[in-house]
Each structure stands twice: as structure tokens, then as C-alpha cells.
Amino acid sequence: MGQATDAILVYGYDLGGPDEGWKVHGLGKYGELPPLDWYDEDADEDDNDFVSAVESRMLAVVAGFTEQCEPDARENGYYDRKTAAEKRIGVVTEMYCSHSSPMYALAAHSTTVHRGHIEYLDPDDMLSRPATQDWDSRLVVALDALGLTPLEQRPRWFLVSYGDL
Fold it and tell me: Rounded CA gap, 92 and 109, in Å?
């Protein structure tokens, strides 16, 4: 059994992670996240999914979507409403490094290239799209909703890897 590695090109902010260090201002004495009313870094690992917590917070605060998934979710249109709310946010959390040692990026855009595949990039498009798509302001709204201030002063393009056994 080998290891599959993906490349992820991100436009946004690198937030770091618990093992390698968070890359946000206001960390605690031991490098933990600042107090957040929507995420408990010390909670039981099964209930401590940072990506899901970020998604839930942004859905509620940015998009006003607070519906809970019910057994008849597919039939009652829940997933369509949730997808529409996610599009209004326009920001996602990308996990990188590995599942056992996760790190996170807050992304207004990301492109994942799986092992053995190729993605062609246009540098001119990369320079113009953040402004034309209003990515920077979407990221500001998301960070405000999350109560996080990245160490980076502005969003930018960066390449990360994700691999898992």
C-alpha cells in the first residue's frame, strides 16, 4: 500500500493547524487557538472536526443558514438550500498535510490536482481573478465571522500538499 499525494493550489490564507502550529494572532500560552464560541480545540477528537465547525459557523453567520439535516433531507430540498448558502459564502476550508496531522487553509478558490493528473494554469488569470471574483472581500467576511486574524497580511496564492495512507 502506497501513499497518495494531492497538490492543492489555494487563494486565501494559511491558518496552520494544531500539530505544526496555528498561523493566527492571539494564540494561547501553549499555541492553542484563541477562545472561539464556535470551536473547542480541546473537545473529544470525535466531536472536534475543525472543517465542519468552520463550515457550520460560516453557514450560520455569513449565509444565515441554520437548518439541521433531517432524515428526509433529500426529499425536502435541504441539500439544494445548503448548496445555495455555500455559494453565497464563496469560501471553503481546505485541509492539507495529512488526516493524522491536519493543517488548514481558508480559501476563496482552490484547485486540487490528484496524483497522476495535470492541471494547466494561466498566470494572467491567477492575477486577475481574485479582484474580478471579489475573493478578498469574501475572505474578510469569513474571517470576521470566524473571529480569526491570520498572520498573513493579505490573501495570496500558495501550493500545499495532502497525503494520506
Answer: 8
